Amino acid sequence: MNSAVKNEKLNNWIKEVAEMCQPDDIYLCSGTKEEYDLMMAKLLASGSAIPLKKRPNSFLFRSDPSDVARVEDRTYISTSSKDEAGPTNNWVAPAELKNTMKGLYKGCMKGRTMYVIPFSMGPIGSPISKIGVEISDSPYVVCNMHTMTRVSSKVLELLDAGEDFIPCLHSIGAPLAKGQKDVQWPCAPIENKYISHFPEENLIWSYGSGYGGNALLGKKCLALRIASAMAKREGWLAEHMLILRLTNPEGKQYHIAAAFPSACGKTNLAMMQPSIKGWKCECIGDDIAWMKIGTDGRLHAINPESGFFGVAPGTSYDTNPMAMDTIKENIIFTNCALTDDGDVWWEGINDAVPSHLIDWKGHDWTPDSQGDAAHPNARFTAPAAQCPVICKDWENPKGVPIDIFIFGGRRSSVVPLVYEAYSWDHGVFLGATAASETTFANIGAVGHLRRDPFAMKPFCGYNMGDYFQHWFNMGEKLGSKAPRIFYVNWFRKNQDGKYLWPGFSDNSRVLKWMCERVDNKVNAEKSPIGLLPKEADIDLAGLNISSENMKELMEVSLKEWKAEIPDIENHFATFGKRLPESLKKQLKELAARLG
Ligand code: OXD
Ligand code: MN
Q: pLDDT tens across 111-161, in order?
């Protein structure tokens, strides 16, 4: 098959990996529908894929119970010095890490086929896009990569024309001896899992896991960790952000990029349908934004992915009808429950809990059973093109010009529904101090406050102190063309623990205020933490919310905010000498405004 690959670097790499991993076969992927069907047929034959009677061309997979999520404590940024990786990343020196991993890779594909997957992150040929080649021994990975990235032989043509690629090596770490029967979800034990990044040589090595971001290397590994390091070197931004287009009743368009930690509703906001009359919202991406300064001096964003790898539990026609309509066919479901009539089910999909299911572990489940029927991190892999509100410009190679950045997190108290940064630098401070209460999706006690700067804590491929400085530098370059920056909290609760804000489609009311701020249509009120909306300026028409609730939602308590300062100081102290002076200045100014 190597004859099909003319590129010398790629050919040498394939040879080197094949010698190390010793697969039975090598298969070069072309990205066609026939290829997808062939892989799925293989997965059906082996018993890994379960066809769903109720959804055409859709399949359910059940992972090994030890392989259900990204493994942050097995994820490494391997730079020449520990300081380059910084305090938010695990670090092992490149030579040592490679040595350990080479030991694991040796013979790890025995009894399996090695798939070579050429893919583009971003529209093929866009000046913002990047090429990767993933080598993997998992046909499940091949199918997911088909949906999440642009797998195509055209990518090889770009390599022939002189473009470079990012090598992404993946093995599930489960060789098969002669005659050994395969299991439903082969993977390696947790202590042998490694998700390693070598940003100084644009290289990814992943071993032992078949799940999500650990295995679909175009997503978190390439498009965030490696790309963030490239973006710093090259003067652009690779961010953990959704992208949406909002159009007002007069037809004016606004493009918004928003960063929230996992499990804070990014996919819901990306596909939100406004409850306010005459406003329209279209989805461009739900997880990652790559942004470059265009010839017009503005920041232009593309979604480097071509699919959604969304969390299933909690997704319903109430919370995200557009996602529900996206996942009707051609979907890979992982770790959802199975209904008796051949459909998927998860907690929160609807009010009717079936009397019998097969749970994500493959066991009988009834409402009396202990534990969830679907794993809390169960996922759907869905083609973005199937989303009924996908924006017609979602594949525009030039990207869309960003007007507004939003940061936020899940806070049951302290943080108001929305406020605006005083300036770009103040906005960088808001991103750098973003915090969220942990949920099932995070490691640590539920409800514990975790600082997750720019929602990038698990995804920044270099020292995060330098990342903050990069944001200040980008602001300087953008000058008056820089997007405006806001902070939101959809999750504030009252004394009885009830959410004060309805959220979902009513978040459009908050976005409308932001657009009116951008257009200088409304003034804002100064507060110690930032600019707050005036009472009448959030459009509440048709919404049944009491003025007491609105007051509580918008309250800024000096006492509570003063109590935040030591926590921010501790957070900043972890960055030592790499903490930009501008952040220290912003913290001082906040403390002074709080009095
Ligand atoms: C994701 C995540 O899967 O952020 O997108 O965990
Ligand atoms: Mn994400």
A: 999 999 999 999 998 888 999 999 999 999 999 999 999 999 999 999 999
The Cα 109–Cα 368 span in angstroms is: 42
216/171 same-domain check: yes
Last residue of a domain, one of 386, 403, 427: 386
Task: Answer yes or no: is pLDDT of 570 > 70.
Answer: yes
Cα(114) to centroid of ligand 1, in Å? 27
Task: Judge contact between 389 and 283, C-beta under 8 A.
Answer: yes
Of all ligands present, the nearest one to the C-alpha of 441 is: 1
pTM given for the model: 0.97
On whether both 192 and 260 belong to a single domain, the answer is no
- Domain count of the chain? 3
21 is catalytic: no
Helix axes 94-105 and 8-21, enclosed angle (nearest 10)? 60
Asked if residue 287 has its Cβ within 6 Å of ligand 1, the reply is yes
**Rounded Cα distance, 297 and 478, in Å:** 6
Mean pLDDT score, 382-394: 98
Q: Is the CB of 261 under 6 A from ligand 1?
A: no
Average pLDDT over residues 243-262: 97
Distance CA(202)–CA(408), nearest Å, equals 30
404-408 and 484-488 strand pairing? parallel
Residues 295 and 313 in one domain: no
Query: What's the CA-to-centroid distance between 377 and ligand 1, angstroms?
Result: 10
pLDDT of residue 263: 79
**269 C-alpha vs ligand 2 centroid, how far in Å?**
13
